[in-house]
Amino acid sequence: TQTYTxxxxxxxxPVVPVIVVDNVEQAVLLGKALVAGGVPVLEVTLRxxxxxxxxxxxxxxxxxxxxxxxxxxxxxxxxQAIEAGSQFIISPGMTxxxxxxxxxxxxxxxxxxxxxxxxxxxxxxxxxxxxFFPAEVNGGVKALxxxxxxxxxxxxxxxxxxxxxxxxxxxxxxxVLCVGGSWIVPTNLVRxxxxxxxxxxxxxxxx
Length: 207
Ligand code: PYR
Known about the structure:
Blueprint: H1 6-11, E1 15-19, H2 24-36, E2 41-45, H3 51-61, E3 66-70, H4 75-83, E4 89-90, H5 96-102, E5 109-110, E6 112-113, H6 116-124, E7 129-132, H7 140-147, E8 155-158, H8 167-171, E9 179-181, H9 187-192, H10 195-206
Parallel strand pairs: 1-2, 1-9, 2-3, 4-5, 6-7, 7-8
The structure holds pyruvic acid.
Pyruvic acid binds next to loops.
């Protein structure tokens, strides 16, 4: 198993697609379409029953992808995500248990923060890379600029409310390494199997 650092995962693509999969076959086709468009980092959220199997299948069938698990909300899910082959793990928030389990494995973990106090708690456990979620409703670009005053060394992947209209504003910040979003994986295109259109959307953020 290839091990990446959080930094490598966050700089492999400017946009990390936040993916919801209905089934394994769809996940593999979607992964191939995104990689073909220059977006190799795939955050498969544990929001559907197929997610863990999809991660395992993507690792095997789309070797050029960097496949991780999102919406990991408990230690149990964390361990399941690792066992499925996840190359990184992301949560929509943080708990003491998640911050601890993240340090028990080599796989990079991005807990999510919404406030400076969350960042300070994460730093106590040794983290300096975080998701910022939900980004737009927590102050968006302005909040991240303000976080950079006292904590310039901390880097973020903002997610939540980010789309084609504003992602470049986030990427222009010194403390943003990538953004997360689902606008390049719209449910209607995924369900309709419009893989060429997904590849074009991936190209629109990777080129
Ligand atoms: C997550 O559900 O993990 C997100 O990234 C929002």
